Amino acid sequence: MNFNIKRTLGACAAVVATTVLVGCVTPYQPHGATGGYTDRQIDDQTLHVEFRGNGYTSRDTVHKYFMYRCAELTQQHGFKYFMIVPTALSGAIPATSNLVRSGGFDHTQMRKVHGYVPIIIYSGGNTGVRYAADAADIRMFNDDAVITTKVAGWDAAEVLDQLGPFIHSAGRSAADVPKAWVFEAGHPKVRAEDLLPSAPKSNTVSGV
Question: Average pLDDT in the 135-158 region?
């Protein structure tokens, strides 16, 4: 009898612990039972970075955690900037026609459009729990990088500074991801949004 009671209590404790664990929003942490970040090095300048959040973690939070991790790694590796690159270009996976046709890619240039980072929705199988993940390869560089075309990227220090309050408060402090910069050989970096076409100015006549 005592053995059965202990076994029942143990099972109940395990269920409660699992429920509490699953019911928590994913914190900014290395990947664990509730999610977190993973990364691996592809070459001296390129990393694969991923952040997974459980079903209680919003897509926006996952994206901010992902961007913060990218910036953190960029500084740790001695670089100032990072950009998102297609995995076919980075060498993480071979190029395929499916990749080129996938959403977010400019198929003529084989590059991300507007620095878009996909948020992938996974299903937890029989548990029915769904969770989001940001996963991409990043290329890190400095001001002396050899650039042969326009590329969009982020200033790591700026991302860490702007998202820091959000990260350190576990998402309770509001913060936005900084706007991307555009880098071009022979030109100073400019905000990507400054290069977007604007609406034509209306020619209004006074008094009309």
Answer: 94
